Amino acid sequence: MSFQAPHLLLALLLLPLLAWVYWRMVRREAREGYGLLPGLERWRQATAHGRNPRRYLPLGLYGLALLLGLLALARPQAVIPMPDEGAGIVLALDVSGSMRAQDIAPTRLEAAKAAAKDFVERLPDGIKVGLVSFAGYAVLNAPLTGNHAEVVEQIGYLERRPNTAIGEGLMESVRAFPLGEDGKVLGSATVILLSDGQNRTGIEPEEAAREAAKLGVVVHTIGVGSVNSSDPNVPFAGFDEAELRGIADVTGGRYFAVGSAERLLEVYRELQRQTVWKPQRSEVTALLCLLAGALLASSLLLANWNRRVI
């Protein structure tokens, strides 16, 4: 935590002074027996007989409220994760024929669609997300938009198509981001590319990855299913792990191998925390004032409950 007005922290020196004044008042009343502090005699009697061990709680809450109030004077700042309103994310999903493999229940495609929907539904308001599907060719199913319900709807419409063109899917995703005057994408741009196969047509994935890196797009890749799948009903069901890892490495992203629907959900949620939320230094004066007020109210209520004024 840092402070915009650190010199005001000198006000904290009032706390030991106030504690000393209070102690002197208690000692004086105990010695002279007059009522500077109403209810002191009952407090002393309870102390002498070991009753009411919570007798110090109102005073402690009151002191803590003073501490937070004095800290608030210095306008504290803290690093807090906040939604990155400049972030744009494109989900690129492989919808090739091998996505009908059932090693991830109910099928790879249905598990991928469910995880993608969960990802979009959890996005904070204002974050733009798009959707690209690819098989033998790539389709921009939903351009970057803040309408998350529309993207979820488009995910539900995805169906299998033949062949696999990972490079085309990546290029279509990169083209979804607007470019600035410097020729690079505006804001934070991320592609999350999921595939269960090997590139068989179109632009080479490595070339597409270099283009993405050139424009400032980070690509995270997910290999879904079994690397050495032997499903007789699904030819070419194994993905090229080296190819997907290479795409992520070139663009500064991360690669994940996923073998279950549960793990796929975890990966998407981890990537959401990484791509959508960023630490920002924010003033927390209002929060400290609110806490101080709550503690002060609690102190007074407890003191009144005990018929004791702190």
Structural key phrases:
single chain, 310 residues, alpha/beta, three-stranded antiparallel sheet, 10 helices, 9 strands
Radius of gyration: 30 Å
Measured by DSSP, the beta-strand proportion falls in 15-25%
Question: How large is the count of helical segments?
Answer: 10
Q: Helix coverage percent of residues?
A: 40-55%
Q: What distance lies between the first and last C-alpha atoms, to the nearest angstrom? A: 31 Å
Form type: elongated
Compute the number of strand runs.
9
The secondary-structure class comes to alpha/beta
Helix-strand string: EHHHEEHEEHHEHEHEHEH
Spatial order of the strands forming the largest sheet: 5-4-3-6-7-8
Q: Could you describe the largest sheet, including whether it forms a barrel?
A: 6 strands, mixed
Contiguous low-pLDDT stretches (5 residues minimum) are 34-40, 46-50
Quaternary form: single chain
Mean pLDDT: 83
